[in-house]
């Protein structure tokens, strides 16, 4: 199964740029920005990077975020992600970028865009095509939504395909962001909010109804509502399932207990993804292997999961055909 999974041309639809930074990348950034206080010694950094709980995840996430000062740092991050993807035969990825957080940290929009563009060109040279999802950090409220939308629509960088919403879900209703998603959709961006990762099925309903979600980030809790599952199947709305992330953040107790089994049995379009891979000790190949093992999937069922991701992507049809 391992070599079969490796050989599949794969697509990743849910990975956060800041959350993709591996130890090598963070070491490079920490040595470039020693004032950030992030360990510059590999063994110490590996200890710092060992997941303990969700609060610790946030601490490391913000430490990485704080070292991103300019174009070179963004370039380093994108190239590090592309190298990880290339090693796993991942040919295409839709990468979530949260521009508002970088702007808040004092980076100029031009520096961010220059790093994304040069990183994307370097990734293409490695055989990995990258597209961008610009997402609203939900915890920053409507101001974050306004700035994210303005940045996306005014800059409209090459490769930008979608508009998202991340961060906490509890206390951050999806519906308040409807006008921003309407405007993004009118401008041709696809709607891909997180929903049902850390809250119940009502959040997924709101993502579908209020934000007209074309895919759902996570969607873990959908199986608590059979009518919602039926709706997702009927409308063909794919889920970006991130099994290891859900286990590590304690949303589910194990991959075997993950509702991905019920999702597949019900006919939901399931795609497998990593979310914040090095933080959770995840790789895309590892997600396929873990789910295949826990659910005792056949080779053709595993291939179907990879095909789902190609079909659920926002690639043009011609490129989809090449990857199927
Ligand atoms: N941003 C980075 N990782 C995230 C996650 N797991 N859920 C929501 N927003 C995120
Ligand atoms: Zn996510």
Which helices and strands occur, and which strands form pairs?
Blueprint: H1 2-7, E1 10-16, H2 23-32, H3 42-48, H4 54-66, H5 71-87, E2 90-97, H6 99-104, H7 109-125, E3 129-137, H8 141-155, E4 160-166, H9 178-186, E5 190-195, H10 201-209, E6 216-218, H11 226-235, E7 239-241, H12 243-248, H13 260-266, E8 270-272, H14 277-280, H15 284-295, H16 299-312, H17 317-323
Parallel strand pairs: 1-2, 2-3, 3-4, 4-5, 5-6, 6-7, 7-8
Helix pairs in contact: 2-5, 5-7, 8-9
Bound molecules: adenine and zinc ion.
Zinc ion binds at residues 14, 16, 166, 194, 217, 275.
For the structure shown, list the relevant keywords.
324 residues; alpha/beta; TIM Barrel; 52% helix; binds adenine; binds zinc ion
Task: Walk me through the structure.
The chain contains 17 helices and eight strands. 48% of the residues are buried. The chain has one domain: TIM Barrel, CATH 3.20.20.140. Strand 6, helix 11 and strand 7 form a beta-alpha-beta unit. The two termini are 19 Å apart. The chain has an eight-stranded parallel sheet. By secondary structure, the chain is an alpha/beta fold. The structure holds adenine and zinc ion. The site of adenine has 9 residues, from loops.
């Amino acid at each position: 199964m391992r070599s079969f999974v490796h050989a599949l041309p794969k697509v990743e639809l849910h990975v956060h740029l800041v959350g993709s930074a591996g130890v090598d990348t963070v070491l490079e950034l920490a040595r470039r920005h020693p004032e950030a206080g992030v360990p510059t010694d590999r063994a110490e950094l590996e200890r710092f990077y060992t997941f303990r709980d969700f609060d610790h995840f946030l601490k490391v996430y913000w430490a990485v975020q704080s070292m991103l000062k300019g174009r070179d740092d963004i370039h380093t991050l994108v190239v590090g992600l592309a190298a990880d993807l290339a090693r796993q035969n991942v040919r295409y990825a839709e990468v979530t970028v949260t521009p508002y957080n970088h702007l808040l940290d004092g980076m100029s929009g031009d520096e961010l865009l220059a790093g994304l563009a040069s990183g994307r060109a370097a990734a293409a040279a490695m055989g990995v095509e990258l597209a961008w999802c610009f997402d609203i950090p939900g915890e920053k409220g409507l101001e974050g939504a306004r700035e994210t939308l303005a940045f996306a629509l005014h800059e409209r960088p090459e490769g930008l395909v979608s508009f998202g919403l991340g961060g906490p879900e509890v206390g951050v209703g999806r519906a308040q962001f409807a006008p921003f998603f309407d405007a993004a959709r009118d401008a041709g961006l696809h709607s891909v909010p997180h929903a049902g990762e850390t809250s119940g099925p009502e959040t997924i309903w709101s993502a579908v109804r209020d934000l007209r979600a074309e895919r759902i980030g996570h969607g873990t809790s959908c199986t608590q509502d059979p009518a919602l599952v039926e709706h997702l199947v009927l409308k063909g709305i794919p889920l970006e399932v991130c099994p290891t992330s859900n286990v590590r953040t304690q949303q589910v107790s194990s991959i075997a207990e993950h509702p991905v089994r019920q999702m597949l049995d019900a006919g939901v379009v399931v795609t497998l993804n990593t979310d914040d891979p090095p933080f959770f000790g995840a790789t895309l190949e590892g997600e396929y292997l873990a789910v295949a093992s826990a659910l005792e999937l056949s080779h053709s069922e595993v291939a179907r999961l990879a095909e789902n991701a190609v079909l659920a992507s926002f690639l043009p049809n011609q490129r989809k055909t090449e990857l199927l």
